[in-house]
Amino acid sequence: MTTGFKMLGVVLGLTIATGAAIGQDAADKALADATKARQAQMQLYAFNLGLLGGMAKGEIPYDATSASAAAGNLLNLAQLDQTHIWPEGSDEMGVDGSKALPAIWENLPDVMAKNDDLVTAATAMDSAAGTDLASLQGAMGALGGACGACHKAYRVPNS
User: Of 35, 119, 134, 147, which has fewest CB within 10 angstroms of its CB?
Assistant: First the structure.
């Protein structure tokens, strides 16, 4: 009987350890998936900002329709519900490839204020981009500043 209890104890211990490992794998996968989704959103920001910035600098011919579409995309991106793509622990210390600094979760009110600034700047760009080149150029500074403010404070610097 004692051997049976020992065997049951070993089986239960292995089951618990396996369950914990599976649970940790699922948690790691959830953090990695959230980080990938966040990075995809950032790539979409960069693509649309690149179009607008290229037009503003004269590197890409100004086109009101394209500018308006890119600005609308930025506004939509800025207004997305990001609740599930910023889980605590998805910073550069917890997920390979993440550039988010842990300070984000220590300063959420500031992060939210910076996001509000981004929405304001994206709204202004949405209104300006399709008007004319001068209006697009006038809206670029605030938009770039809003992106940069968050990146300077909460993103691993590019090396």
Answer: 134
**Phi, psi dihedrals of residue 155, rounded to the nearest 5°:** -130, 140
Domain extents in the chain: 2-154
For 125, the token pair is: 């760009």
Phi-psi region of 89 (alpha: psi -120 to 50; beta: other; left: phi over 0): left
Query: Two tokens at 109?
Result: 């009110």
Q: Domain 2-154, what fold? A: Four Helix Bundle (Hemerythrin (Met), subunit A) (1.20.120)
Q: Are 87 and 105 in contact (CB under 8 A)?
A: no
> pLDDT (tens digit, 9 = 90+) per residue, 36-69?
999 999 999 999 999 999 999 999 999 999 999 9
